[in-house]
């Protein structure tokens, strides 16, 4: 067997972004096909020692983790094509129906099951037979509705409300536990001359986190899961209550979020222009090169209703899947078996301290304070949700919910018509459930 090596095939993602005026233009023009056609060349592999990998880990830190990890595999060769994260997500359906790579990065939950139900990904149950150290919760999250295991977890992280302890200490602010306490804190922060809550939604997914957390706190986990499955009316009082709570937060959120990326919102908090940010723990990546990388902490999204509590955590799981008809199935499964090991996952942890391992036997001696707190938070959770665009149908999330949330942020007084439109489109997308 030859030593492994890795070759990154250039993908002109910047050119793709410049050629498409907006995310909606990509969808409207059907450009997902052309965007991910760049991956098709990588997928056309006939070398028995080579596995092709498509990756949406396009930001510098996670991209490095993928490259380092794949280059450490001793079982063969790897050709990897890294495509911009959002472009990959928007074009994934066309990609999988075309000439996809053997292995590709994806997400657990509904998004994995969606492609399993349509026969676009492979059964990995035989790979799982060689995996130990993964808890039952990860196995459940990796399963299709029929019980087949179709996903290999790589890492995960919680969503919470992040803040700089130094700023809170300077002003004498305390972490809120209830929604009312949070509103009062927002007033104090405003009085101190800061914008209380950093906020962005340029890419159309960021606001989904706020929606999820409000729904989980206002209505509880069971309703949230049912709503995501298309089994609840978007015109119900429960959904209207979500947006009523959100309207109370709007005066404290950063203005004009549709023109701001999550990185720019995070930088505003780093620069102490804003005080808090509801986001995933990947925000820690923005602190890596700051003057004080440890000046970051989080608190659980506050309780809204004591009867519901605040012990449900949103913790998306990232990982790997295999195409339905891989060009090199044997080597692809060998690679996936390696990717599930503690040694392979350690490359991600070394490169990116904003995530935690899905394995119960992972060495946590080098975990940061933030990582250890994340483990504790998730361990004590009564339930774990993935994320709106992972917990529901991808087409519903991207073409209906994403623009609807952006419409709400632009026109909060139009919520009734917005919800009416969502419900109408939901019935065409979820015909069996409606």
Structure description:
This is Sugar ABC transporter substrate-binding protein. It comes from Dermabacter jinjuensis. 47% of the residues are buried. With 434 residues, this protein is of the alpha/beta class. The protein has helices at 13-19, 23-28, 32-43, 60-71, 85-97, 110-117, 125-128, 136-141, 165-171, 179-191, 206-218, 221-228, 237-249, 262-270, 329-339, 342-351, 369-379, 388-391, 394-410, 415-429; strands at 5-9, 50-55, 77-82, 103-107, 152-156, 159-163, 195-198, 274-280, 297-299, 312-314, 317-322, 383-385. Helix 19 (394-410) packs antiparallel against helix 20 (415-429). It is built from 20 helices and twelve strands. Helix content is 46%, strand content 13%.
What percentage of residues falls in helices of 4 or more residues?
40-55%
Structural class: alpha/beta
Shape: globular
Sheet having the most strands: 6 strands, mixed
Total number of helices: 20
**How large a portion of the residues is in β-strands, by DSSP E?**
5-15%
Enumerate the spans where pLDDT stays under 50 for 5 or more consecutive residues: 1-5, 9-41
The residue-averaged pLDDT reads 87
Question: How far is it from the N-terminal to the C-terminal residue, by CA?
Answer: 54 Å
Strand order of the largest sheet: 1-3-2-4-11-5
Supply Rg: 21 Å
In total, how many beta strands? 12
Pfam families: SBP_bac_8 (PF13416)
Protein name: Sugar ABC transporter substrate-binding protein
